[in-house]
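Summary of Year 1 activities. Much of the first year was spent building the evaluation harness for sequence design. The harness presents a backbone, in tokenized form, and records the residue chosen at every position. We chose the following record to illustrate the format because it has been used consistently in internal testing since the harness was completed.
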């Protein structure tokens, strides 16, 4: 059963209200579900982030997770290369995500978390103190901002992270640093700097190239500066005051004129606010701390009044709240659990305003093959308090070919399925929370004949033990150069050296390897041409044959999931020199092993037993007396730790036992006496 937080105000219902409840009017309590218990390690100061954009939620402390269903279920980002604490996450869309860390710098993915690039704009290096407290995209995937806590520098890249430029936003010579920044709808950047308990903001209208002078002062111990969705100069500042403790209050301050003047719109006794703030165009949500906070507070009138909606509390100086819509809110609590409410904590919001959806038509230029294709409708909002979408449905002659899902604050996904051949026509009807509708035309073409793929390779051989061989990989049937993943399995007496492209680039995916298997990632595989080679050092330690098998092909850049018919596995046989004694010789070369031989009992009155720590295979055993005369010779098969009996001559004396096999020649001495 899911946990539920209840608003503390519910425990203070007066007698009159209680009478109303008793006659059947339902109580409205805060409703929160713990959707991911112990998902992450607990938050610490400036470590803990939860963000939502582009239909996806991402969360992190010392690990990183994402959700594609508005926080209902979560998946780990196993490829994330840092174990440093995560301080902030910026999401542009489902592919482009920027993460700031406590000591490892910045990490950017452009493929939805499959691969990451590490940036250290301020110098230093991995595991050196290079703490960034906040990151953001500024209107595109090319313009990135990162605020470095230690130096108070705002770093900006206008080429997607390739290069970075540093700026000290404040004109004050004395400053402890910078804690947070906001980007207004006109792309103006506002940065809060501070010294002691005093703070001020500066702004830039040219992507950080030049900066205004310091604004009038406000409080400095603030973790979040948020820009209003309508007014470019209206900013909200959360002054949790948990660390600086200047005075005895935690506050939310407002400026309507870019810092020229400030107004306190909420004041609470210490400790209360944790510094996190998340908002839609119509609602503000702020978090509170565990020791004396009270869940989450909400404002629907631009911060003038606040209402508690229950829910969890969060560690101070973290970015632990995210909004999916006016009513769907996610929270990462201080212990690393994620909570969700679908109705604003039991107090759903419905406010009228303007709305439109873009594009006006979907799939109109798309042709899909055999299965499905998903596109996204983004919501464009007009005015300062825009409408939100309350529901979606699909109508029209081919409505069965389409399905809508993943309704969120700014988008809804629509999938076209290849159930019937030919042109498909329908309409996506968006029902707004004021009862009106907005329509998006749906049209596309279905071709249910996929391109058939096949993988080819070649058998390879060598006549030298320990030689290196290269097994080729070719993908046939691609309609154009594509980026693919596939899995290599190998068996037998092989040392895997890695797989490489024709230019020498390693194809093995980091973290995708274990004995006998490796995941390969090939960029721009050309149809019908060798895309790379799997390299092995070949031995023959046993009777088992050696193979390399390629399977589980995925075309990552396919237009739709069923543009291609996926191929069967292909196996390459790898052979080397064979013959009597080769496995033993191979073990000797491969592992540097030499057999340990023993003869017992010694001295003996009768026969003896010979034992070996390794298989010797076909072996010749000769017995010589003290004069060097051959007294007996026999051929036997010597197996590992299987003693075999050897008869000695009748006469007493010292005998030499000569053992000869593929592993080498060995001499043992034995004394016979009665």
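For this record, the design step produced the sequence shown next.
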């Amino acid at each position: 059963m899911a946990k539920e937080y209840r608003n503390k105000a519910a425990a203070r219902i007066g007698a009159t209200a209680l009478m109303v409840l008793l006659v059947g009017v339902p109580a409205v309590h805060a409703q929160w579900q713990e959707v991911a218990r112990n998902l992450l390690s607990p938050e610490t100061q400036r470590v803990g982030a939860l963000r939502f954009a582009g239909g996806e939620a991402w969360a992190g402390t010392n690990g990183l997770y994402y959700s594609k269903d508005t926080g209902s279920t979560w998946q780990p980002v196993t490829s994330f290369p840092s174990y440093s604490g995560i301080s902030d996450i910026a999401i542009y869309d489902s592919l482009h995500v920027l993460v700031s860390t406590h000591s490892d710098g910045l990490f950017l993915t452009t493929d939805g978390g499959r691969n990451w690039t590490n940036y250290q704009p301020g110098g230093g290096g991995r595991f050196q103190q290079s703490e960034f407290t906040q990151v953001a995209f500024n209107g595109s995937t090319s313009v990135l901002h990162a605020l470095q806590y230690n130096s108070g520098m705002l770093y900006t890249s206008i080429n997607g992270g390739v290069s970075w430029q540093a700026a000290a936003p404040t004109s004050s010579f004395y400053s402890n640093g910078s804690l947070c920044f906001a980007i207004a709808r006109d792309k103006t950047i506002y940065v809060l700097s501070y010294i002691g308990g005093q703070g001020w903001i500066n702004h830039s209208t040219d992507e950080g190239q030049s900066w205004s002078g310091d604004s009038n002062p406000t409080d400095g111990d603030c973790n979040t500066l948020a820009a209003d969705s309508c007014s470019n100069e209206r900013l909200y500042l959360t002054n949790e005051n948990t660390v600086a403790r200047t005075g005895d209050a935690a506050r939310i301050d407002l400026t309507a004129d870019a810092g020229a003047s400030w107004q306190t719109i909420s004041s609470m006794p210490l400790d209360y606010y944790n510094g996190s703030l998340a908002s839609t165009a119509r609602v503000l949500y702020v978090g509170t701390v565990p020791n004396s906070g009270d869940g989450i507070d909400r404002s629907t009138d631009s911060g003038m009044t606040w209402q508690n909606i229950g829910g969890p509390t969060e560690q101070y100086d973290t970015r632990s709240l995210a909004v999916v819509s006016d009513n769907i809110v996610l929270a990462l609590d201080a212990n690393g659990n994620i909570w969700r409410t679908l109705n604003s904590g039991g107090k759903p919001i419905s406010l009228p305003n303007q709305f439109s959806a873009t594009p006006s038509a979907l799939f109109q230029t798309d042709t899909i093959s055999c299965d499905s294709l998903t596109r996204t409708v983004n919501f464009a909002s007009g005015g300062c308090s825009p409408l939100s979408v309350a529901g979606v449905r699909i109508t029209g002659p081919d409505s069965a070919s389409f399905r809508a899902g993943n309704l969120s604050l700014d988008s809804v996904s629509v999938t076209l399925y290849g159930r019937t051949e030919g042109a498909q026509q329908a309409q996506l009807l968006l029902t707004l929370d004021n009862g009106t509708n907005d329509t998006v035309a749906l049209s596309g073409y279905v071709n249910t004949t996929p391109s058939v793929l096949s993988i080819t390779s070649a058998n390879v051989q060598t006549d030298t033990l320990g030689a290196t061989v290269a097994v080729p990989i070719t993908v046939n049937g691609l309609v154009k150069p594509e980026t693919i993943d596939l899995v290599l399995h190998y068996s037998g007496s092989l040392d895997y050296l890695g797989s490489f492209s024709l230019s020498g680039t390693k194809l093995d995916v980091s973290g995708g390897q274990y004995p006998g298997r490796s995941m390969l990632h090939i960029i721009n595989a050309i149809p019908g041409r060798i895309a790379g080679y799997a390299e092995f050092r070949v031995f023959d330690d046993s009777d088992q044959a050696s193979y390399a098998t390629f399977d589980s092909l995925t075309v990552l850049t396919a237009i739709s999931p069923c543009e291609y018919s996926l191929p069967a596995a292909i196996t390459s046989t790898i052979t080397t020199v064979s013959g009597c004694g080769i496995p033993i010789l191979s073990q000797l070369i491969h592992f540097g092993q030499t057999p340990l031989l023993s003869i017992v009992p010694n001295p003996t009155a009768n026969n003896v037993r010979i034992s070996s720590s390794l298989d010797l295979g076909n072996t010749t055993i000769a017995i010589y007396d003290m004069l060097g005369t051959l007294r007996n010779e026999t051929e036997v098969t010597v197996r590992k730790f299987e003693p075999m009996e050897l008869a000695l001559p009748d006469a007493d004396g010292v005998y030499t036992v000569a053992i000869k096999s593929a592993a080498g020649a060995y001499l043992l001495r034995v004394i016979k006496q009665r």
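Residues 1-30 have pLDDT under 50 and may be disordered. Quantitative recovery figures across the full test set are reported in Table 2.
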